[in-house]
Amino acid sequence: MVPLQLLERGPVAQHHPLGASTGYMEGLRHDWPALVEQALETSSFAVELAALSENELPGLLAFLADAPPLPFHYLSVHAPTKHLRTSDAELVEMLLTLPAGVDAIVVHPDVIEDVAAYRRLGASVVVENMDPRKSAGRTADELEALFAALPEAGFCFDIAHAAAVDPRLDVANDLLDRFCGRLRHLHVSSLDDDHHHEPLSDADEAAWAPVLRRARDVPWILEAPLLHG
What we know:
Elements: H1 4-7, H2 11-14, E1 18-21, H3 32-40, E2 46-50, H4 57-66, E3 74-78, H5 88-95, E4 104-107, E5 125-128, H6 140-149, E6 154-158, H7 159-165, H8 170-179, E7 183-188, E8 190-191, E9 197-198, H9 202-212, E10 220-222
Parallel strand pairs: 1-2, 1-10, 2-3, 3-4, 4-5, 5-6, 6-7, 7-10
Antiparallel strand pairs: 8-9
């Protein structure tokens, strides 16, 4: 269920299914039980457990191996994108130990060196579009070859990244035109001037509404809190 405070906000907060990414919960980093409890304050339907640095992944794997069944209907894990020391093959080997209840494993295309290694994840692997800072994966054209190499892969649509690449939202619409059949879930937030995630602004929510309506049938995962204080 979604807290009453969220229902008093705009259409993103009222979307179902809604969930939160633990990636923005900096103060609880590595404390997976506490991160799950924090995510439940947004929704019990969907969550993204984000091991954004490689050193967070072993703790997440251990937590999921020992934890009782989590209450979420949709469980996404964000694979590491920072402080990477292992090869793609070694990282995939670790990700293959995730329990069967994980619905999606989100990866960033700009850190992939050995695409073939990710084929072992099958339909679990989900590719996210990137922001303008990155050297790959920003547009549909840049993602086309990666999806061709990973025919079972899903798509995680980050609307803030797409809008940062092209504020007119042509890139956003092209991504959905080309990969709507792969769409698994959506990331939503605003971005600051350095392209870091921050709470969704009213202006962005209004401007992005026509694109958001195209992704009504998948979970929307918040990459920044909607509520303050």
